[in-house]
Each structure stands twice: as structure tokens, then as C-alpha cells.
Amino acid sequence: MSKINGKTIWLTGASSGIGLALAEALAEKGARLILTARSEATLNELAERLPGNHRVFSLDLSNPENAFQHGQDLVANETIDVLINNAGVSQRSAVLDTDLSVYRQLMEIDYFSVIALTKSVLAQMQARKQGHVVTIASVAGKVGSKLRSGYSGAKFGVIGFMDCARAEMAEHNVHFTTICPGFVRTQVSHNALTGDGSKLNQEDPDITGGISPEECAAAIIKAIEQDRDEVIVGKGLSKLAPTLQRFFPNLVRKLSAKR
Ligand SMILES: NC(=O)c1ccc[n+]([C@@H]2O[C@H](COP(=O)([O-])OP(=O)(O)OC[C@H]3O[C@@H](n4cnc5c(N)ncnc54)[C@H](OP(=O)(O)O)[C@@H]3O)[C@@H](O)[C@H]2O)c1
């Protein structure tokens, strides 16, 4: 049975980058999408042009309690087959220059709201004895590097959370796939938070040299279809980094300090 065709998939971060490419590819494969982000007008336009019948469910994920409540309201009227936790915000600022409020903001969006949405769908998935939670973490959730301390912290955390949830839910036939992309050519660096919470609004050469959002979306869909637990997606050093870290941790620490 297809994991995508005919399934209801709740996708966050659908207005841009990886989420937008995922929305296009999933709709093409026959999924019915519930599209989430803050930019309601963009989502409406997207829902209109995608093949199939989709729903816009705009939500600000910077308030996890609010996100949980909205998630519960959604699940009261919808059966969710797959939740894709894709929305996220990155960071470009050194520890000493970063306000505590920025760390909190990164954790609210990249960690607590991911937990909130996952919890909001999980009881239904357990009762139905089927479901799939997909989370777009990052290579930054495997390997620490400069200027991303809050982002990395949130992504490391989310990978650990999903490992625990996978173990708890295995007996209920609820699956968990964690995706760790390396560099992908999206708006991520433009939208990254700096030390005072303002957006970086700049291109990042690492991101420019990354894979396309479409390539990333294709790899994510393959991982969902194959029920993979965790997949590293990307090219070059950003893809190799988690393996290097595992076998040559000192080398990776030295490289991180130099870059
Ligand atoms: N690009 C990369 O190199 C890369 C690498 C590793 C991991 N990732 C991860 O991939 C995911 C997607 O990022 P991207 O690269 O596609 O970046 P992007 O182009 O900046 O897209 C981010 C998405 O998240 C949504 N979002 C941001 N803040 C939100 C909030 N407070 N409430 C609701 N939605 C919010 C945005 O929608 P609105 O602004 O409309 O709300 C947008 O749809 C993120 O989790 C990111 O950490 C990206």
C-alpha cells in the first residue's frame, strides 16, 4: 500500500524551500495536504495550483502551547496519516553575541513546537495503529559548528526526542523518520536569526553550493516510502560530516574550529 497516494499529510513550513518542494512532489504523488506556515496568502496560492484538493492551516509555531491546541483542534476533524515537521529557523551568531531570548525563540520553533505538533497527532495514530511522523532535523543536529549553537542544540534535541518516541510507539505501528539534511539551496540563511533576533538577510555560500530543494524532497519521500528511521541527505562534506564525526571525532572538532 502506498505511503503517500491517498494519504492525508500535514506538512509544516510548506510556504518555502524544502517544504514547498515537498508539497509539490507529494501532491503530484496523490497526497491530500494540510499546508502549514505563517504566510497564509502563499499557502492559499499554493493550494490552488497544486493538483488535488488541499487544506490551508496557517499557524505560528513560535508559541508551542498555542500550536498544541491548534493541533488538537485539527485532529478533532481530520485523520492524519503522516505529519511532516519541516518548519524551522536557523541561526548565524556566536554564543557571546546571542541574546538568551534568541536561544528561547529557536527552541520554541525548532524543538518545542515540533514536540507539540507530534503530541497533538500521536494519540490518534496510536488508536488507529498506524501513522508516520517525519521530522526534518539537520546535519547540525549531529555535528556542532560555529555560529549555530542554539539551532544545533534544538536539532540535537529533536533527534533524541524522536528516537525515544520511535521506541515507545513501535508496538503501536507508528513510524518515525528523521531526516538530517546538509546544505540545501533555500531561504534558510536569509531567515536565520542573528544575535539580537533580527534576520541575517544574506546569502550563505555553503547554502548556495548545496543540493536543490527538489533533490532534498525526493530523498525525503524515498525515506518515507522505505520507512527509514534516519537519513542523512546532501552532498560533499555536509553529508559526510556525521560519519566522520562518528569515526574521527577529533578531526571533525579540529575542522569545525578552523572553518
Ligand atoms: N536549507 C538547509 O540547508 C537546511 C539544512 C538542514 C536542515 N534544514 C531544515 O529544513 C527545514 C526547512 O527549512 P528551509 O531550508 O526550507 O528554510 P526556509 O526556506 O527558510 O523555510 C522555512 C519554512 O519554515 C516556516 N516557518 C519559519 N518560522 C515559522 C513559524 N514561527 N511558524 C510557522 N512556520 C514557520 C516558514 O514559513 P513562514 O515564514 O511562512 O511562516 C517556511 O515555510 C527547517 O527545519 C530547517 O532547519 C534546512
From TrEMBL:
The UniProt keyword set, sorted, is:
Oxidoreductase
Q: What is this protein called?
A: Short chain dehydrogenase
Specify the taxonomic lineage. Bacteria, Pseudomonadati, Pseudomonadota, Gammaproteobacteria, Alteromonadales
Q: Quote the cellular component terms of the Gene Ontology held in the record.
A: membrane
Superkingdom, natural source: Bacteria
> Matching PROSITE patterns, A to Z?
ADH_SHORT
Gene3D superfamilies this protein is in? Answer: NAD(P)-binding Rossmann-like Domain (3.40.50.720)
Q: Where is the Ketoreductase domain positioned along the sequence? A: 7-187
